[in-house]
Design a protein that fits this description.
Elements lengths: L3 H4 L3 H5 L8 H7 L5 E2 L5 E2 L2 H13 L2 E4 L2 E4 L2 H56 L7 H64 L2 H14 L7 H16 L2 E7 L1 E3 L2 E8 L2 E7 L6 E3 L1 H6 L10 E5 L5 E14 L2 E10 L10 E2 L1 H4 L3 E5 L4 E7 L4
Parallel strand pairs: 8-13, 9-12
Antiparallel strand pairs: 1-2, 3-4, 5-15, 6-7, 7-8, 7-11, 10-11, 11-12, 14-15
Helix pairs in contact: 4-7, 5-6, 6-8
Length: about 375
């Protein structure tokens, strides 16, 4: 049976035909004869031809939106963009809450240390003069009152530390979710690129582009980068704000050592997530030229063997582990009375980032997300 009579029937009969679909090129050339020329020398195709061109794009993972050609998956990608905007706003609020909690904890720590020093001075004075005949009852009252203040402030300090810990945990969870979302966006862009590249070699798709361009002023030819590049740039900008690194650990004496740089001085540090601040031994302080300020506060530290000792508070200009660097890091500087002490990498550095100690794999994992606009 010849198909020629059918090709000259109205479009509704052709589209309802039980015969296999003829390619777009055949439909363009045969269904209604040559396209009608317009004043601008552009051919004018029927609605059926336009619809067939749209259908061919969809069969190859593309669609027309206005005068633009997009991958079908861009709809899902746009949802990911909305999720990214929402999570980024939440991340900023959570980071701000953690920073405020950290500042509040540091203020409580300073008040506690100052009050503890005063309490120690009063006790030393009482030990020196005693209380013969009750002549120093006022001193006893001061000591008792200050002791009560210390207990209350210690409870406040404990609560503040716990809140800061919870805020940091919440921030770390959101940072991880954000990083996973950006990774998902990258995979989506890579998948759309594969779709567009595959479609670019299909002859029917090329014809569909030319047909649609006559009515919708869409591109007459497929330019892969014009479709993918804007999506790729958006994801790349987000990726530039995410830093992650897996850093090897070395087991030593039941703990984990990591290579660090204090100032310009390379050093092995013991990773201690139970230590509130970084600990710098006297010899490392000498090598790295770390000196306490004239008005540096005294800190009371409890050593592993239960001893209490007074150390000087210092702030390290920079401390780096792998590619992760922090500035103005709070630390405790030991004096020469504690020889052989190991440097500790404590929370005053670790909590600047999302961190995880992977003991089975002997790795320290660090993640940081910079603020993005």
């Amino acid at each position: 049976m010849s198909l020629a009579p059918r090709l000259h029937r109205p479009a509704r009969h052709f589209l309802a035909s039980p015969f296999p679909r003829i390619g777009l090129l055949a439909l363009v050339m045969c269904s209604w004869g040559p396209p009608v020329a317009r004043a601008d020398d552009q051919p004018k195709y029927s609605d059926a031809v336009i619809a067939q061109a749209e259908k061919i794009l969809q069969e190859h993972g593309l669609r027309r939106v206005g005068s633009q050609i997009q991958p079908l998956e861009q709809t899902n990608f746009n949802r990911l963009i909305s999720d990214e905007n929402r999570l980024r706003r939440a991340l900023r609020l959570t980071r701000k809450a953690w920073e405020q909690a950290t500042a509040a904890t540091q203020a409580v720590e300073q008040r506690f240390d100052a009050l503890e020093q005063q309490y120690g001075a009063l006790n030393a004075r009482f030990a020196a003069v005693g209380n013969p005949g009750g002549r120093n009852n006022d001193l006893v009252v001061q000591i008792n009152a200050m002791g009560a203040q210390l207990k209350q402030l210690d409870r406040t300090r404990t609560a503040s530390r716990e809140e800061t810990k919870q805020r940091r945990a919440a921030l770390g969870k959101e940072e991880e979710q954000y990083a996973e979302l950006v990774l998902k966006m990258r995979r989506a862009v890579d998948g759309m690129r594969e779709t567009v590249v595959a479609a670019a070699d299909v002859e029917d798709v090329k014809i569909a582009f030319r047909v649609l361009a006559t009515r919708h002023e869409s591109p007459a030819e497929m330019e892969i980068e014009s479709i993918i590049a804007p999506l790729d740039r958006r994801v790349r900008k987000l990726e530039e704000a995410i830093f992650s690194e897996t850093i090897p650990l070395e087991e030593s004496g039941g703990g984990w050592m990591v290579q660090a740089v204090v100032g310009l001085e390379p050093v092995q540090m013991l990773v201690d997530s139970g230590a509130s601040i970084v600990l710098i031994p006297h010899d490392l302080g000498e090598k790295a030229n770390i000196k306490p300020a004239d008005d540096a506060r005294d800190l009371t530290m409890v050593m592993a063997d239960g001893r209490r000792m007074t150390v000087k508070e210092v702030f390290l200009p920079r401390l780096r582990v792998g590619q992760f660097e922090a500035e103005n890091v709070r630390a405790a500087l030991l004096d020469e009375s504690v020889p052989g002490a190991k440097p500790l990498l404590g929370l005053s550095f670790l909590e600047r980032f999302r961190f995880e100690i992977d003991s089975p794999q002997k790795h320290l994992k660090l993640l940081r997300i910079d603020d993005t606009e």
